């Protein structure tokens, strides 16, 4: 764990700028199989990016709390959620989240401080570890003695310059992690026993204490010489074990080893079912209830269709670079249609007629231009925007007598998992299904130190809901989507992870299943050139 980057990233993720307060307490109850629950209490700054001069604190708090509840990963159900705005810029949040696998639990960015819980079998017991989820950036080749001395001086100077900024961020920072374990810890490193709990451990990250530890390192000339000689980059701070030693007393991980004889702390299935049954009513009562997704469309016309934009270019000259709106001469109308239900994707759309009120045909001769390219679905996939490119209307035309076309959409009636099996994460490796093949691996251009792989699948990209990479313990590996390309019934999906790629992983693809296409016809009549009803 890179402590400098962790401190800055943690504060940035929590929204802490040059002033602000972040305080949290997380109380976990863990079962031997990795399931459990965690009660999160926090106070954190709220950011506002919507351009409002005086944003409403309650609305900001609603958005921030909503992101925690809806965007956190690995949560099966929420219970006892509450939130409020303190002053104009502070969120106060509390809630209990149930998770099936603590290794896959990740709170939304608004509540994430860059630390992750690891729970792994070891012999007849288990190992609990608290640390940075991502790997550190690969080190550079060790420098010569002269280079190391110069680099140590530069790194130490840069680090000292960062300290005032970190001081402002850390002044009111505190993150407390408490764990009730399913068995007694046989040994611990950098955890403390929880008072009054035989099987409880805790770790506290206190901002002023972190700053004090970093200040000591800034003055440790021997540390920087050794750090530079190890091949650390110029922007790297002290590694986690070093900072852990200053914060908790021992150089090493924050770890507890639990022996044999563990027992579940609670009935996960029963408590989760009860929490899930009451969750909707609870969220509705506090204004956080997400709307239920609309049922899939199954034929029928647009519920509503209207013109939402117009653009007319009367003159363009490519030779002289006269291109208003970066467009050639022509006329475009943007339509918005409410679909008869939710859809998976828009397969194709095209214009079939376009007639001015003067009778002239405005339909382009070129088939490509008659197509409605790049239709844009709404986030809930129940509406679509269609950009219709037409010929310029003639002189004297006031509007359109008719604009019509067709649209084909795809819906899915279910989902299915397809296991690609154990794959070596290197170019040329093949999976057991979907003609899967890793076509490329290597270092990414940005961010530095990250790695990428591209997975080719012979399946329509729209049918792919997600891809998971699992380690030997079935915990999810932090490979995140980073772009895609598709052509016909084949797609290439790129994923990125910090540091180096693991040697291998179990790969599971979740597909939309039972796909079906529907085609609808649409028509707009008697509108002026701005899309308003003709009078």
Give a verbal description of the structure.
The protein has 535 residues and is α+β, with helices and mostly antiparallel strands. 20% of the residues lie in helices and 40% in strands. The chain contains eight helices and 23 strands. The strands form five sheets. A seven-stranded mixed β-sheet has the order 3-4-2-1-7-10-9. It has a four-stranded antiparallel β-sheet with strand order 5-6-11-8, with no helix packed on it. Strand 9 and strand 10 (200-206) form a beta hairpin. It is globular and about 85 Å long. The termini are far apart.
Count of β-strands: 23
Shape: globular
Q: How confident overall, as mean pLDDT?
A: 87
Largest sheet properties: 7 strands, mixed
Helix content: 10-25%
In whole angstroms, how far apart are the ends? 69 Å
Brief account:
The chain has 535 residues and is an alpha+beta fold.
Structural key phrases:
23 strands; 8 helices; 535 residues; globular; four-stranded antiparallel β-sheet; alpha+beta; seven-stranded mixed β-sheet
Topology:
Blueprint: H1 3-13, E1 22-30, E2 36-45, H2 57-71, E3 75-86, E4 90-99, E5 115-122, E6 125-132, H3 145-170, E7 173-180, E8 185-189, E9 192-193, E10 200-206, H4 207-218, H5 221-229, H6 240-248, E11 254-258, H7 268-286, E12 304-313, E13 330-338, E14 345-356, H8 367-370, E15 376-377, E16 383-390, E17 399-424, E18 437-443, E19 451-457, E20 464-470, E21 480-487, E22 490-497, E23 504-528
Helix pairs in contact: 1-3, 3-4, 3-5
């Amino acid at each position: 764990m890179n402590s400098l980057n962790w401190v800055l990233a943690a504060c940035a993720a929590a929204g802490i700028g040059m002033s602000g307060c972040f305080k949290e307490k997380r109380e976990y109850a863990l079962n031997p199989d990795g399931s459990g629950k965690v009660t999160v209490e926090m106070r954190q700054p709220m950011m506002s990016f919507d351009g409002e001069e005086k944003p409403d604190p309650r609305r900001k708090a609603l958005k921030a709390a909503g992101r925690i509840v809806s965007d956190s990963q690995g949560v099966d159900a929420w219970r006892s959620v509450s939130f409020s705005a303190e002053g104009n810029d502070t969120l106060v949040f509390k809630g209990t989240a149930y998770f099936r696998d603590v290794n896959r639990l990740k709170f939304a960015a608004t509540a994430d401080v860059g630390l992750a819980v690891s729970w792994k079998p070891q012999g007849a017991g288990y190992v609990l570890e608290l640390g940075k989820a991502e790997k550190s950036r690969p080190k550079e080749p060790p420098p010569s003695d002269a280079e190391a001395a110069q680099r140590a001086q530069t790194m130490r100077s840069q680090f000292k310059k960062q300290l005032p900024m970190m001081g402002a961020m850390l002044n009111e920072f505190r993150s407390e992690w408490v764990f009730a374990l399913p068995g007694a810890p046989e040994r611990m490193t950098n955890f403390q026993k929880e008072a009054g709990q035989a099987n409880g451990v805790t770790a506290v990250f206190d901002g002023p204490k972190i700053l004090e530890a970093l200040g000591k390192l800034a003055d440790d000339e021997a540390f920087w010489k050794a750090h530079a000689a190890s091949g650390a980059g110029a922007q790297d701070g002290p590694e986690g074990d070093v900072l852990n030693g200053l914060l908790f007393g021992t150089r090493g991980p924050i770890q507890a080893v639990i022996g044999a004889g563990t027992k579940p702390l609670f009935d996960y299935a029963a408590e989760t079912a009860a929490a899930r049954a009451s969750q909707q009513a609870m969220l509705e009562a506090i204004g956080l209830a997400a709307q239920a997704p609309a049922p899939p469309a199954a034929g029928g016309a647009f519920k509503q269709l209207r013109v939402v934009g117009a653009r007319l270019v009367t003159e363009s000259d490519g030779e002289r670079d006269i291109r208003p709106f970066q467009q050639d001469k022509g006329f475009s109308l943007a339509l918005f249609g409410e679909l008869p239900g939710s859809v998976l994707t828009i397969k194709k759309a095209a214009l079939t007629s376009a007639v001015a009120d003067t009778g002239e045909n405005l339909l382009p001769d070129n088939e490509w231009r008659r197509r409605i390219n790049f239709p844009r679905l709404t986030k809930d996939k129940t509406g679509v925007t269609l950009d219709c490119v037409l010929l310029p209307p003639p002189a004297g035309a006031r509007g359109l007598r008719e604009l019509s076309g067709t649209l084909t959409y795809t819906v899915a009636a279910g989902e299915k998992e397809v296991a690609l099996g154990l794959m070596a994460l290197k170019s040329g490796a093949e999976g057991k299904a979907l003609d899967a093949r890793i076509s490329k691996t290597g270092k990414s251009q940005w961010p530095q130190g990250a790695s990428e792989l591209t997975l080719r699948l012979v399946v329509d990209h729209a049918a792919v809901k997600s891809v998971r990479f699992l380690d030997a313990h079935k915990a999810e590996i932090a490979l995140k989507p980073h772009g895609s390309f598709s052509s016909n019934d084949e797609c290439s999906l790129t994923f990125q992870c910090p540091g180096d790629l693991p040697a291998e992983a179990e790969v599971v693809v979740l597909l939309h299943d039972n796909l079906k296409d529907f085609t609808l016809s649409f028509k707009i009549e008697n509108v002026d050139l701005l899309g308003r009803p003709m009078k």
